[in-house]
Amino acid sequence: MHMTEGNIARKVKKLINKPDEFFADSPHSALQRFGALLKRGAPTVASYVSRAASPTSAHANDGQGASTSSASSQAQHQDRRIENARSAEYADDARKLAGFAVALAATDYPFASEGVVMGQPSYRSIGLEFLRYFIKWGELSPEDDVLDVGCGGGRMAAAIGYYLSPSASYVGFDVHRGSINWCLDNISTRWPNFRFDHYAIGNSRYNPRGALKAESFAFPYADATFSFAIATSLFTHLTRQEVRQYLAEIARVLRHGGRLFSTAFLMTPAAEAAARHGTPTIKFEHQFGENPVQSLEQPMAAVAQHESVFFADVTEAGLVIDRIAYGWWSGLRTSNGMQDIIVLRKP
Asked: Where are the beta strands (DSSP E) in the chain?
């Protein structure tokens, strides 16, 4: 059915007025639903959402109608004030929705070239899916200052670029020089507030000749620089001692109240049971130091963390757990992503 501008506007308005409903959806269904709207009229939707998300729109009519003394006018004025209050309450969610709409509607979305870390065909879909996670569970704001630890080929940065305010900042660093060079050429040139740094940290999978050791690497950023940190598909390639160091450094550079959105393969009794009796995507049948690994030939290709040990290191770093959403890597039945999602906060 052809979607008129009015129909699209009404559907988007419904999403804006019921953000709890929108953000409660599973990522895939929300992407499909909103993506379908955008495909039918992307410019109209993006424009409408931007107008609806304007900070001034919530109070555009505030104070009007007070001059009349009629009961009906007073009632209308009261209704308007209630409506404006609701609009103000939803303003932050509406702005987030606007940024997400722009990312989904983008016709110039960057696509990582071959040889870039995480530059596979799902580069865009995974980036958009995690942008949903960042907003829904990590409370990512367009005004956040973001640190992306192990940013690879900018899979998260490409999606976040459409979302962050120009006054916000993004810094990503990685051990893979080719990926950082690609990000500088293809992402920083679009968004000047996006910076990418390369550090020669050794990793048998991504930088075997790196001279720096991850277990003692001090992030070259000042204390309390960032309000949001990302570590997706990072702890899945680090040993326990390296994870411990990175957690401590992330906590140091986060401001109070800042969040860390991370993913991992957490080894739990439930995950072990599911792996034994089900059909896991990844099997951790070997031990490499303190960590279960998929392969001894390439131990850093897929690394699991014992949950109890990981949580102890989280506490030692001065972070607290906000949310855990277990993934389906072990065979657990869940609608979340493959890896386990752990959102941490600096009190």
From this structure: 145-149, 169-174, 194-198, 226-231, 254-264, 266-267, 286-288, 291-293, 305-306, 320-325, 340-345
Give the Cα separation of 124 and 168 in Å (integer). 22
How far lies 129's CA from each of 29, 132, 218, in Å? 10, 5, 30
Q: Six-digit token pair at 26?
A: 């599973």
What is 111-345's CATH topology?
A: Rossmann fold (3.40.50)
Q: What residue segments make up the domains of the chain, in order of their start? A: 5-100, 111-345
Do the beta carbons of residue 272 and residue 241 sit within 8 Å?
no
Q: Could you give the strand order of the β-sheet that contains 340-345, starting from the edge strand earlier in sequence?
A: 194-198, 169-174, 145-149, 226-231, 254-264, 340-345, 320-325
The label of the residue with tokens 């389906």 reads 328
pTM of the predicted model, to two decimals? 0.82
Alpha carbons within 13 angstroms on the beta-carbon side of residue 202 total 10
How many angstroms separate the first and last alpha carbons of the chain?
A: 50
The values of phi and psi at residue 262, to 5°, are: -130, 160
Q: Sign of dihedral through CA atoms 93, 99, 102, 106?
A: negative
Task: Give the torsion sign (CA, 289, 198, 217, 226).
Answer: negative
pLDDT, tens digit (0-9, with 9 covering 90-100), for 21-80:
555 555 555 555 665 555 555 555 555 555 555 544 444 444 444 444 566 666 666 656
To 10 degrees, the CA torsion angle through 222, 180, 230, 113? 170
